């Protein structure tokens, strides 16, 4: 539809002024044309900024945690609480519906070639829980990321399960990877994860290695110091795939901070960290809710690695006064896409959130 030209307007006005015998017909016509012109102008030329945000009304519920005790479950305490262990522990073929209670158990069994606590490596069970457990790794702060990644590539805890796995209340410090999650086979799509109340610090690589791209929930965790936050990048000797379109990785009330460790830069050590998300085309769709992230500098892998994963949705409907935030401590503007999260430069936003989490969880 085109608007009347200047000549058309003049003719209409002339008709109205000088052809009085037709005034009862022409007056309504002029009014109608003016109204139509206004409506067309609004819809054709209004700025895009006036359009409502696609994500402004997004509401994505966080599923409740799986039940780790009660009817139908077996709760086992596989290890004594004393003395401190210096060897790893495995439950290679656990029964279904078992909860391993590691509260009070402390291990210093890292550096190691295998994860300190490991469940399901031979036969993955249905509905596995791991509660508690402390790993105080002995990594050398002067050694590089490359050294630990190549020589001592192991996690604090590794879980392989079916249906679901729940890791709760774990404490890990000074190891290569934090929580390692795997399915019973590559791209099996037969499990989900729920990780809650865990505290990770001085993690030399991934705070969560999720390279089998298992969906689920990360709820109320403090991952204070990670070289890399979350990895969903299948290994080189495995193929890539497309995760199910309805599979989500929900980060709800998460605190994830990056910290610098030595990296090999052409034979010379250089301090740096990677990124919040180490992603791939196989990765899940991410939902961020009421979470805070700390980033100290540009990633050792460059600015392109610092964006939120494609399709990330931010749902802060449960925390309108404390929305999801990136605390950026580097120079200039935060270099990656933020999925709409606010970015601040005040380190107290991070330290206050960490202090509150530790108080609430008895640290």
How would you describe what is shown here?
With 363 residues, this protein is α/β, with parallel strands linked by helices. It has 2 domains: 6-46; 74-360. The chain is 16% helix and 33% strand. The strands form 2 sheets. It has a 22-stranded parallel beta sheet that branches. It is globular, with a radius of gyration of 28 Å.
- The radius of gyration computed from the alpha-carbon positions, rounded to a whole number of angstroms, is 28 Å
Oligomer: single chain
Strands, total number: 24
- Derived structural class: alpha/beta
Sum up the structure in keywords.
363 residues; alpha/beta; 2 domains; 22-stranded parallel sheet; two-stranded antiparallel sheet; 24 strands; globular; disordered N terminus
Quick structural overview:
This protein is of the alpha/beta class. Helix content is 16%, strand content 33%.
Which helices and strands occur, and which strands form pairs?
Elements (H helix, E strand, L loop, with lengths): L5 H13 L4 H23 L28 E3 L12 E3 L6 E4 L4 E2 L9 E3 L5 E7 L2 E3 L8 H7 L3 E14 L2 E5 L1 E6 L8 E6 L2 E11 L6 E4 L2 E10 L16 E5 L2 E4 L2 E5 L2 E5 L4 E2 L6 E5 L2 E4 L17 E2 L10 E4 L13 E3 L2 H14 L3
Parallel strand pairs: 1-3, 2-5, 3-6, 4-7, 5-8, 6-8, 7-9, 8-10, 8-11, 9-12, 10-12, 11-13, 12-14, 13-15, 14-16, 14-19, 15-20, 16-21, 20-22, 21-23, 23-24
Antiparallel strand pairs: 17-18
Helix pairs in contact: 1-2
